[in-house]
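Q: Sequence in, structure out?
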Amino acid sequence: MKRIVTLALFIITGMALNAQDKVAKIEFKESTIDYGEVAKGSDGIRVFEFTNTGNAPLVISNVSSSCGCTIPKKPEKPIQPGENGTIEVKYDTNRVGPIRKTITVMSNAETPTIALKIKGKVLDPNGK
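A: Exactly. Output:
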């Protein structure tokens, strides 16, 4: 009986240690996108590219913006180890002036929360 309990503990400990080795890691190609100077009403869509450099599937649970003027779109399916993914961001370019917004990405990655930035300036065609 003592051997069975010892063997069971050994197996459970080994499985727990093995499970801890599996972790998703998210690595972005760039953490800031600079729109530069864009005209009012121009295309406000930009894309953040990333890779799952871990050894477990990456699940992005939520992507939010610091402002309603910026709409992020996350991948719906898990990103497998070694695969690439994108987070699309659409900024409302009908708002004239500087762009300084933060997009927060939450996932099951080793670093569960990452802040991405967009910046730039929307120009008024009338020079105002």
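The longest strand covers residues 97-107.
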